[in-house]
Amino acid sequence: MVRAPSSDYLRNPAWLLLLLFAASCRRDMQDQPKYKDLRGSAFFADGRSARPLPEDTVARGFLNADRRFATGKVDGQPIAELPIPLTKELLARGRERYGIYCSPCHGLTGDGLGIVVQRGLRRPNSFQIDRLRAAPVGYFFDVQTVGFGAMLDYSAQIPPKDRWAIAAYIRALQLSQGATISDVPADARPALESPQAAPRAAPLVPNEEDWREHPIVPTAVPGEHAR
Hints:
It contains 10 helices and 2 strands. By secondary structure, the protein is mainly alpha-helical.
C-alpha cells in the first residue's frame, strides 16, 4: 500500500520560502531582455541598438522581381499590354475598385464628372480624349502608382494587382463609350435596338457657382422662437 506523502514538510518555513522563491522566478512578456526602439547600446561600436540591414535585403512580399508588373514600365516607358491575364474576374474587380477609388472624381463612365467635381473640385480629363485613348495601359497603372497633377498616388491604398485591374477596366470604359452597334454581339443587339430601351441620359454639367446661386437657408424648427 502506497502512503500519501506527509504534509509536515509544508509546515516547514524553509519549504514555504523555497516555494515562494520558485514562483517568483518568471519574466513577464512586457519586461523582456531586449532593446527598445532607438535606444543606445554599449555592445556595438557605433553605440546603436538598431542594426543596419544587410545589403540587398528585401521585405517579405516586396521582392518585385517582375518589374513590368511592379512598375508598368520597360526601360522607363509604359508598357502597352497587361502583364497579367485579362479575365472577366479581373474586369469585375477593376470595376469594383474603380467605383471606390476613381469614380468620385472621374465619374462612373470616365467622363470626369464625378460627384466631387459636381461639388466644385477641378474636373479631370475625360478618358475619352485622344491623348488618353492613345495612352498605353501601363500609363494608367503608373498614374495610380505615382500620381499626376492634382491627383495623389494610390500606391498605399491599392495593391499592384488591383491597379492593373483598374487600368484594364479603364480600357473597357474607353471601348464602351466609343463602341458602335457592330461591336455588340449579334444576340445582344435586339435589346439595344428595341424601342423600349431606355434613352441615354445627358451628362450633368457642374456649375461651380451653384452654392452661391442657391445658398442653404436654415429652416425654422416648429415651435422654436426666433432669437
